[in-house]
Amino acid sequence: MAPFAGVVEILLAGFLTRLAAIPLILNMLVAITTTKIPILQKSGFWAMAHEARVDYAMLLGCILLLIVGPGTWSLDTGLTRGAEHSDG
């Protein structure tokens, strides 16, 4: 999954941001389910919470990008502005 995640993360730089956030959200949910749930069962909540903090940060960051979308300096915004100027 690493090459796939790498390509999608490059897209998050500002090109198709909302579309790229969806597979990363799914990827993080699978990662949390398959790697952190066994830690929860074996070592308890605090050990799992300690191990999962980066995963949760990435998951919440991707959810934010899905909801808010790209910023004003993104490729998506630049392409949309260019299309608006050429239509006008």
Describe the model.
The chain is mainly alpha-helical and 88 residues long. It has a domain at 25-68. Helix content is 84%, strand content 0%. The chain is built from four helices and no strands.
- Low-confidence blocks of residues: none
Cα-atom radius of gyration: 17 Å
End-to-end Cα distance: 43 Å
Structural class: mainly alpha
Summarize the biggest pleated sheet: none
SS strand fraction: under 5%
Number of separate strands: 0
User: How many helices?
Assistant: 4
* Mean pLDDT metric: 83
Shape: elongated
Helix content: over 70%
Helix/strand order, N-terminal first: HHHH
Short description, anyone?
The protein has a domain at 25-68. It is 84% helix and 0% strand.
Keywords:
single chain, 88 residues, mainly alpha, 4 helices, elongated
How are the SSEs ordered, and which strands pair?
Layout: H1 2-11, H2 17-43, H3 45-68, H4 75-87
Helix pairs in contact: 1-2, 2-3
